[in-house]
Write a structure and sequence with these properties.
The protein is mainly α and about 140 residues long. The chain has one domain. About 60% of the residues lie in helices and about 0% in strands. The longest helix has 24 residues.
């Protein structure tokens, strides 16, 4: 029997599935999780760990005003390279991901620039989507 708080295989294999798996792996393999000896039994625990860190480290009133959209606020948090999410940071690595995911045809041009510019916010959106799929309400962190 599968753990009920994991993303379904359908979600992992869906249109954005590779991106959902990527953000979950970034959380699971984070330096902070390793330092704290965290072993996540399921995706929900990993996402709860991320949101707990996000809440204490970044989600204060000032940032809520600067980034009223939750995905943008999470993206700004990710851009600061938090210890709880081992996300790629360098543009060439981000472009490689875009090519691997099939989002980009070429590492050059306007589409590639836009992908790099919105990468962190896009990952924020995937984290929100993953949380919703495992029964967490990420919008508790909106207000």
């Amino acid at each position: 029997m599968k753990e009920k708080f994991n993303l379904t295989e359908q979600a992992k294999n869906g249109r954005n599935g590779v991106q959902l798996v990527y953000v979950l792996d970034c959380i699971r393999n984070s330096g902070r999780a390793s330092d704290e000896g965290k072993v996540f039994a399921n995706d929900r625990e990993a996402l709860q760990f991320f949101f707990d860190c996000f809440e204490t480290e970044f989600n204060h009133t000032y940032n809520k005003r600067c980034f009223p959209c939750l995905a943008d606020r999470i993206g700004a948090y990710l851009r600061g390279l938090p210890g709880c999410c081992n996300i790629d940071y360098w543009n060439d690595e981000i472009l490689k991901l875009g090519l691997t995911w099939g989002v980009l045809d070429s590492p050059e041009g306007r589409k590639a620039e836009k992908f790099v510019d919105r990468f962190f916010e896009g990952c924020g959106l995937r984290i929100i989507q993953a949380a919703e799929k495992v029964g967490l309400n990420p919008y508790n962190y909106s207000v």
